[in-house]
């Protein structure tokens, strides 16, 4: 199944979650519709096999450049033409040999079997055996010489991040993308006690970082709806609204509902809006598990007709380049042209969202993108064309004292290379890349 998934992701720009149908934490894109012929693969597999197939696919995408180079250097005549799933089979084998804890013989035998079962890869079964055995023998040298920035990051992203953050930081971002991220959760209440029960680490921002690799559904509190999976950086934008019980909130582009749950748990009257039916269904299921009451509305935010709210959160569709640690497919499925196209959509959604904020109310705009056009530049252009809004600077204290996450303008900018200092002196690494700005709409008195 991992070979099928890789072929589909690399060939058709489908996403990991589209194929493995995981749900939690999936970042939506402008293209909510799946390409023809797509759909969850391997539904016949049991959950453990499915999880393994996902782990192999994720590892292969995380270090795709390294694996392709290792394979290419061991194919004297390059990849044969019309060889069906041969490349995907080699990638799956190499990922297991180099990156996962799979015995060499099992990885090689499985790959050879896969080649024998594919009519076009069949003639190359012996080649698969030879290439993978050589990769196993050269494992240490391959891993010692491969660099996630130089090899595993597409050149256009390398250039963009170097321009935006400097090459040294861009290298640290790529290095963070090369490591498997921890699982963070948000709790409805009583984070210190849940951190203890789950054996996790309470982060200064209030999220809990799990340390065990137990499937989340088997952990205490999951079934009873006490918490949900959410990257610690993704949990920050909803907090910036500082909602009070009973306030009305429009959560725009809400599915699968991580931020909706935070707002509802804070006691706000939340209307969650998303245009993708399947994603909205997932949001409803999540709220049901969490026992949180939320009004759900299927609509396009760009033409949403709704009474203005005390607070509006716009988690706009974006390139999701801040989530490559969790979704390494993004590095290979996104294209340079996607950035201006998404920025144009964000521009339009932001303008419409502005009209849904009560006078004196607050608008938080956020994206999980590392690209300034989807963050800082989007907001400076918005403020220039909306004089009735001003930026309300975010403080380090609101982010658990993590001052490095606050920009000079007072916005939130987290990077995958972030370090999180704990009270005991330990430093944890890694957050998803997020941008958020808090904007206040002037009251009538302020305007006059
Ligand atoms: C970044 S995800 C939202 C993540 C969500 N806020 C959370 O915290 O779980 C973006 C969402 O925007 C939705 N979306 C994209 N364009 C939209 C539009 N024009 N109107 C409404 N929803 C849209 C997608 O379906 C996707 O669910």
UniProtKB/TrEMBL annotation:
Naturally occurring in which organism (per UniProt): Chelatococcus asaccharovorans
Name the chain's protein.
Answer: 16S rRNA (Cytosine967-C5)-methyltransferase
Q: Which UniProt keywords apply?
A: Coiled coil, Methyltransferase, RNA-binding, S-adenosyl-L-methionine, Transferase
Please name the PANTHER family in this protein's record. NOL1_NOP2_SUN FAMILY PROTEIN _ ANTITERMINATION NUSB DOMAIN-CONTAINING PROTEIN, NOP2 YEAST -RELATED NOL1/NOP2/FMU SUN DOMAIN-CONTAINING
Record-linked PROSITE patterns: SAM_MT_RSMB_NOP (PS51686)
Tell me which residues this entry annotates as catalytic.
Answer: 368 (nucleophile)
Q: Which GO terms describe its biological process?
A: regulation of DNA-templated transcription; RNA methylation
**Segments of this protein annotated with the region Disordered:** 20-48
Record: residues binding S-adenosyl-L-methionine: 253-259, 274, 315
List where the protein spans the membrane.
none
Q: Which family does it belong to?
A: Belongs to the class I-like SAM-binding methyltransferase superfamily. RsmB/NOP family.
């Amino acid at each position: 199944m991992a070979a099928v998934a890789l072929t589909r992701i690399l060939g058709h720009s489908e996403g990991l979650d589209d194929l493995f149908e995981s749900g939690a934490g999936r970042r939506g894109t402008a293209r909510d519709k799946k390409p023809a012929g797509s759909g969850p693969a391997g539904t016949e597999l049991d959950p453990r096999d499915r999880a393994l197939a996902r782990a192999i696919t994720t590892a292969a995408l995380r270090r795709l450049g390294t694996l392709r180079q290792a394979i290419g250097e061991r194919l004297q005549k390059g990849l044969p033409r019309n060889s069906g799933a041969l490349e995907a089979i080699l990638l799956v084998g190499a990922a297991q040999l180099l990156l996962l804890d799979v015995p060499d013989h099992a990885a090689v035998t499985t790959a050879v079997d896969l080649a024998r079962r594919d009519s076009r890869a069949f003639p190359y079964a012996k080649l698969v055996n030879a290439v993978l055995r050589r990769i196993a023998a050269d494992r240490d040298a391959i891993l010692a010489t491969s660099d996630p920035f130089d090899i595993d990051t597409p050149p256009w992203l390398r250039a963009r991040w170097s321009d935006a953050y400097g090459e040294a930081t861009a290298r640290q971002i790529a290095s963070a993308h090369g490591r498997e991220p921890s699982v963070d959760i948000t709790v409805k209440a009583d984070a210190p006690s849940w951190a203890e029960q789950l054996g996790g680490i309470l982060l200064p921002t209030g999220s809990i970082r799990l340390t065990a690799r137990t499937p989340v559904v088997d952990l205490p509190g999951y079934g009873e709806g006490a918490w949900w999976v959410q990257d610690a950086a993704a949990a920050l934008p909803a907090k910036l609204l500082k909602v009070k019980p009973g306030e009305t909130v429009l959560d725009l582009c809400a599915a699968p509902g991580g931020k909706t749950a935070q707002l509802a748990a804070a006691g706000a009257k939340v209307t969650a809006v998303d245009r993708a039916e399947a994603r909205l269904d997932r949001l409803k299921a999540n709220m049901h598990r969490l026992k949180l009451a939320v009004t759900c509305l299927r609509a396009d935010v760009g033409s949403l007709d709704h009474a203005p709210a005390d607070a509006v959160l716009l988690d706009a569709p974006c390139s999701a380049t801040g989530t490559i640690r969790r979704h390494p497919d993004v590095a290979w499925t996104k294209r340079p042209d996607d950035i201006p196209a998404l920025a144009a959509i964000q521009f339009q959604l932001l303008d419409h969202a502005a009209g849904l904020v009560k006078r004196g109310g607050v608008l938080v705009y956020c994206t999980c993108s590392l690209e300034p056009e989807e963050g800082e530049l989007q907001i400076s252009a918005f403020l220039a064309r909306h004089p009735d809004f001003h930026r309300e600077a975010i403080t380090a204290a609101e982010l658990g004292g993590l001052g490095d996450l606050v920009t000079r303008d007072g916005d939130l900018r987290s990077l995958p290379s972030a370090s999180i200092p704990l009270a005991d002196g330990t430093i944890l690494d890694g957050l998803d890349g997020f941008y958020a700005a808090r904007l206040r709409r002037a009251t009538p008195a302020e305007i006059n």
